[in-house]
Design a protein that fits this description.
With 186 residues, the protein is α/β, with parallel strands linked by helices. It is built from six helices and six strands, in the order βαβαβαααβαββ. The chain has one domain: Rossmann fold, CATH 3.40.50.
Length: 186
Amino acid sequence: MTTVRLVRHGQASAGWGIDPDPDLDDLGRSQAESVAARLDDLVGEATPEVWTSPLLRCRNTAEPFRQRRGVVALVEETVREIPSPPGMATSERADWLRSAMDGTWSDLGGEFVAYRDHLVERIVEIEHDTVVFSHFIAINAIIGACSCDDRLVIRTLDNTSITTVDVTDGILTLVEGGAEADTIIR
């Protein structure tokens, strides 16, 4: 059995409809330090692998934990946030995402189902305990795979919440869902 802890990034300095790759704001940096301490307690003496989305808010949320553990974080493209439809302007992204969040992966169709399936397959392939710094919809996709739920949003995950799943013989099992909060897509 492999334990995978999925950490939603800290609070970003700008919304999804404003900046495609914002950094963390001051609260987000504080959250990153706090989640590093919580993760230290959770993993104990173990040395898990550390993966992060390539997006700045995830890389910088991972940094305090990576430094504490003295490991290199693998930048993993597959755990990035859901892509926007091709050709969509940044200013249109937040409205699109708010609408999509009310539906299912099947409603979105083709490329989005492929994104979800590839993400799930990548997590299922993990062979060593791993901490993955990722995004709201991506983590929800993993939760959905655990429960055979096709909705985009199953839990309203708070910034730096930790969702824990086990991988056993190619099967994902939700151990603990991350803390929830009202999430506003800006």
